[in-house]
Write the structure tokens for this entry.
Amino acid sequence: MSTLVNYSTEAGVATSELCNPPANAYSYDMFRALDDAILEARFDDVHVIVLRGSGEKFFCAGADISMLDGVRPPSNTTLACTPTRR
């Protein structure tokens, strides 16, 4: 399992712990690791999945905004706003 998500099971309970210090910011790689952990739980003898954050302050502070640096809309995309009448 990825270091971004620690996965373990005990007595029918799976625990997936988000591990991206200092704030457990959510990234695409964490999404994939969490998805892998959930798929693994489906095949283990698991009845409950606990999702927790590592550390003392945050469960998950939200999106890792540094991953947005590499995201650009396609150049042929236009944004349109259609006014609505009331």
Strands lie at 5-10, 13-18, 48-53. The chain has a mean pLDDT of 85. Helices lie at 28-43. The longest strand covers residues 5-10.
